[in-house]
TrEMBL record:
Keywords in alphabetical order: Calcium, Disulfide bond, Glycoprotein, Heme, Hydrogen peroxide, Iron, Metal-binding, Oxidoreductase, Peroxidase
One term of GO molecular function: heme binding
Co-factor(s): heme b; Ca(2+)
Cofactor annotation remark: Binds 1 heme b (iron(II)-protoporphyrin IX) group per subunit.
Protein name in the entry: peroxidase
The EC number(s) this enzyme carries: 1.11.1.7
SUPFAM superfamilies reported for this sequence: Heme-dependent peroxidases (SSF48113)
Residues noted as binding heme b in the record, renumbered to the chain: H131
Binding site for Ca(2+) 2: D178, T181, D186
Binding of substrate, residues: P101
InterPro entries noted in UniProt: Haem_peroxidase, Haem_peroxidase_sf, Peroxidase_pln, Peroxidases_heam-ligand_BS, Secretory_peroxidase
GO biological process terms on file: hydrogen peroxide catabolic process; response to oxidative stress
Binding site for Ca(2+) 1: G10, D12, S14
Amino acid sequence: MHVSSKFTVGCDASVLLKASTTNPSPENNPIFNLRGFELIDAAKAAVEAICPRVVSCADILAFAARDAIHLLTPGGCIYDVPSGRCDGTVSSFQEALVNLPPPTFNLTQLKRMFESKNLSFDELITLSGAHSIGQVHCSSFTSRLYPYNPTHLDSGFAHALQRECPKNAAVDCLVPQDHVTPDALDVQYYTNVLNNQVLFFSDYSLSTDPVAKATMQLYSTDFRNVRWRPKFIAAMQKLGQFKVLTGTQGQIRKTCAAVN
């Protein structure tokens, strides 16, 4: 869903820009393990063939995120996404590093970063549910396995991860964020957090706060998503309107990988 792009500089499709002489170190860096951009490129090409330079890459990315959420959520999840965004012309790997919360963050650091984006603690808990899907490299969390802390990580889960991610492995393998329902955007994430069966320390840190823990307990029994889903939609809509570029602030890129 590429929430990272929105969280860094706003929903301006900066994450789609490839390296160039004027922009040598963009957000689109292998360290973030972002994939699937060819689908956005295909959608852009199809739109450009019908109505050139009208629909921005930023809008296409926002629509794609909404559609992915709908397809991955059991029972579906359709919501309105306003259009009219312009594309940005700058993409900075360094800026992404500074603005994206790393998996090692504690709760205080997470809350401070989300507050800087005008996102509440409740929205932090709600948006963290996106970690119910996707895969991450072993190197993102092996510091929790070697050495292993039984207080922070369920022993059976840790031992399973150690088999998939051996110490000093030559290959940096991919592991699903949610080992129970890896292909569904659902509330299983919250059960995993409460059971100390999550990959990132940042996810574990949510369980150290009594308010977050109470909220996650509510979500974890919300099997029809009637509590979590509308709050997740509202948070995604808010995130999709963060620092939107309009008018002369940006451009409508002809291709998503490069500025005009």
